[in-house]
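Below is our example:

___
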Amino acid sequence: MDPLLDFTGKVAVITGAAQGFGKLLAQELAKRGAKLVISDINEKGVLSVADEISATGADVIAMKCDVSKNDQCKLMVDSAIKAFGRVDIGVNNAGIAHEFMPLHQTDESIMDHQFAINVKGVQFGMRYQIQQMLTQGEGAILNVSSMAGIGGAARASAYSMAKHAVIGLTKTAAVEYGKANIRVNAICPFFTLTPMVTNFADDELQQKMGQGAPMKRLGEPKEIVAVMLMMLSPANTYMTGQCIAVDGGVSAF
């Protein structure tokens, strides 16, 4: 196998793995030899994903995890250590969107919910992933931000606020732990055809949303996950503190 895509024996923990990027990334890492601990608030969904992966012969553990709860994030990492002895890869993917609305109509409860899942959930995951990686002397973390974390996002102020915070956490951790050989990066997708988008946008709205990109379409999950694999690759050893836009050219404007 090409060393760039060889994850043989690597132990990865992935949140938000019942669907979307998390599910597809788990499947792709398993194909390439990784051992997995996957979680989601949707316990039934993540157990189903684990069954599919296990049927291929890969090692996988699935569990329910509410990433807004510190103790549940700790348990996920502890489970990986107990089962496999280490954590090589941490993917903090779990996240939520909110209904489009103007900033002046966005109340505190929406901001609190965004912060709890999209920011605290990333920090809690990183906290315990990094603790284990420090004992190992290496590791790679990938946080899922958004194009809304790089620039403004009209009618999505609370989401944009939270995804900007993910960028701040990513860059800060990269600076703090680079000397410990722990790489921390973030990926920033444009609208992609995951359930987070397709559940609220019909075909007509998806077409309109896609017109905002120079490529005149929305992203496909496999296109985002291909970049995630590159960013996590064991052969990619000098890339840290980066927030990579995968956006059909939006950031070129």
The chain has one domain: 3-252. Helices lie at 20-31, 43-54, 70-84, 108-136, 157-177, 195-198, 203-210, 221-232. Strands lie at 11-14, 35-40, 60-64, 89-92, 139-144, 182-189, 243-246. The CA atoms of residues 76 and 82 lie 10 Å apart.
